Amino acid sequence: MFKIDRALFTHFDWTPLVLVIAINLIGILNNYSSCFNNITLEKSPLYIKQIQWFTIGLFALTAAFFTDYRFLVRHAYILYGISILLLIIVMTKGYATRGSQRWLLLGAFTFQPSELVKITIILALAKFFDSHQLNHDYRLREMPIPLFIVFLPCFLILKQPDLGTALIVLITFSAIVLFVGFDYKSLLATIVVGLLSIPVGWYYLKDYQKERILTLFQPEHDPLGTGYHIIQSMIAVGSGGLLGKGYLKGSQTQLKFLPEQQTDFAFSVFAEEWGFIGALVLLFLFFYLIVWGLKTMMHAKDYSGALLAFGLVMIFFLQVFVNIAMVIGILPVVGIPLPFLSYGGSSLVMMMSGVGILMSINMRRFILQA
């Protein structure tokens, strides 16, 4: 499990650690700004909790780095089963807020099992495809187990309800299937079935989910209701201009026009205060981390490591892309956090654990032992 080899330190790559710490520090400063007018002596501000979660995340990253990723892959189905059990517990005894039951209470903290599931699903898929390598592209009839691995947690996540996380998991699964090779006839059949299923899916969406999708195309139709979030977000991003209004000086943020500014719309807060140049720097940090992850995938020691790295990079990329596209009005508001920037302990710790696993894959290519 934990195997400390001198090669891990001889060839240690500081790139991901520096990038993760840099983005997290930006996130903490951003979180301080978003709750600047709400600091009281009676209640710990959110940025203090974010620092606590960041500290926990560093321990999680370190533990994941020192854990041989092949150990995680070997025990992937057990880890997957534990995460499914946690999702079931959430359904019965979970903490509910704002109409969603997604969290487990752990003393003074809350934990969101769906964040853990993002990683355990990738581990389970890496184990399956590594142990079922074929000399031809996969066909639909060879996919019942991977489909079960993905659709079971997606069903449980949708019951919370959490459409955004379920979509992230499904898109990541689709990318992994294309990565391992999917027969074009099966792909065409899947696309046709998917298109035909859209009306059925629309029927089962909650009313507020339908409104979010419709609001994407015409947010000004209900500027004080369903369109309020996205309109205020676009105003905040646009008002930042080239250089921004300055730290702690964003009007949309400080006057509290911008809703969910610590979580879903954290990027809007940052863009308003630091402008286009600041946003560009932040996006470069994300891009650099994603590119590093892809290099890790290409240089992985074995197939399971490559699959695991690809899945983790996809999760990270999709959350960055969907969140930023959401706050600038390209995609509907689906509640996807921006990694390391949005407030939220479960997401932060799991994303840092994912980076730790990537570091484990990257560094263990220098170790000769099996």
Properties at a glance:
370 residues; 4% strand; globular; mainly alpha
Structure description:
The protein is mainly α. The protein has one domain (6-37, 45-366). Helix content is 67%, strand content 4%. It has 15 helices and 3 strands. The protein has helices at 6-10, 15-34, 46-66, 69-74, 76-93, 113-131, 144-158, 163-180, 184-204, 207-217, 228-239, 251-254, 266-298, 303-327, 345-363, and strands at residues 95-97, 100-106, 109-111. Strands 1-2-3 form a 3-stranded antiparallel β-sheet, with helices on one face. Strand 2 and strand 3 (109-111) form a beta hairpin. The protein is globular, with a radius of gyration of 21 Å. The mean pLDDT is 86.
CA-based gyration radius: 21 Å
Which H/E pattern describes the elements?
Answer: HHHHHEEEHHHHHHHHHH
Taking pLDDT < 50 over at least 5 consecutive residues as the criterion, the unreliable ranges are none
* Helix count, DSSP H or I runs of 4 or more residues: 15
Arrangement of strands in the largest sheet: 1-2-3
Say what oligomer this is: single chain
The percent of residues in helical segments reads 55-70%
Mean pLDDT equals: 86
Instruction: Give the number of domains.
Output: 1
Largest sheet: 3 strands, antiparallel
Spatial separation of the terminal alpha carbons: 12 Å
Based on secondary structure, the structural category is mainly alpha
- What spatial form do the alpha-carbon principal axes imply? globular
Number of strands: 3
Beta-strand content bin: under 5%
